[in-house]
From TrEMBL:
Gene3D superfamilies associated with the record: Formyl transferase, N-terminal domain
Principal EC category: transferase
Keyword Transferase: yes
Pathway as given in its UniProt record: Purine metabolism; IMP biosynthesis via de novo pathway; N(2)-formyl-N(1)-(5-phospho-D-ribosyl)glycinamide from N(1)-(5-phospho-D-ribosyl)glycinamide (10-formyl THF route): step 1/1
Reactions the enzyme catalyzes: N(1)-(5-phospho-beta-D-ribosyl)glycinamide + (6R)-10-formyltetrahydrofolate = N(2)-formyl-N(1)-(5-phospho-beta-D-ribosyl)glycinamide + (6S)-5,6,7,8-tetrahydrofolate + H(+)
Family: Belongs to the GART family.
Protein name: phosphoribosylglycinamide formyltransferase 1
HAMAP family (alphabetical): PurN (MF_01930)
Keyword Transferase part of the UniProt annotation: yes
UniProt-listed CDD domains: FMT_core_GART (cd08645)
Amino acid sequence: METQYIRVSFHSAVQPIRIHKNHLFSTLPTPSCSSNRVSLNIRSFSSHILITKRSLKCRNSVEKVEYEKDKSNIRRKNLAIFVSGGGSNFRSIYEATLNGLVHGDIVVLVTNKHDCGAAEYARDKGIAVIVFPKRKEAQEIFSAEDLVTTLRSHKIDFILLAGYLKLIPSELIQAYPKSILNIHPSLLPAFGGKGYYGMKVHKAVIASGARYSGPTIHYVDEEYDTGRILAQRVVPVLANDTAEELASRVLHEVYRRYSETMGKFIFNIY
């Protein structure tokens, strides 16, 4: 029997909601819920059920309590952010470290463009900026091994890519196994790989006629956008959408999802 999914919203703590489409739980439900929303896995059957929010045990609420409890006993992690552009995602991550959503501190920013907006913002905040890779005409040679050595000297625990357009060298991936995350602006594996970045992704999504898009957060491996997926968020592609409009909608979810995922990632929940 085909499994269906239904989302039930509660408008108060005691108000019951009746499901009228003759459904029955296929297993004992373990709902995922926020303050006013519960998601349940159910399958079709000839019956109906009555649900009240009081009758449900919210697993996410339990996880949140444990997460907050553990934070006081674990040191804050040192983070390195890799950026190529203006750094809107980088700024969002920085704010998340300040408000406690991410239990860590950004101590290094790595960029391939020394004069990009993200680099200027980092310098203003007292964050060390490393240019990698450097231009071919640069007098100093700074290899991938040098980058690893520098990050280790800063005691970096995790690396977060936030719009970094260069392929991560294998030396770095080997030095930080399962410790590098990337955010990609499409629902991978669709519209991923070399050449798919920034506005190019959104233009390709619209040109394909796809009805949905959204950000993907995944581990980084030695190829473009092929690492294991940790989280995705679906957003609709609306009729007559421009690439800029779709990008704005996806970016809104990026801000929410990336910091949330990083918070769990740092505590080895994945």
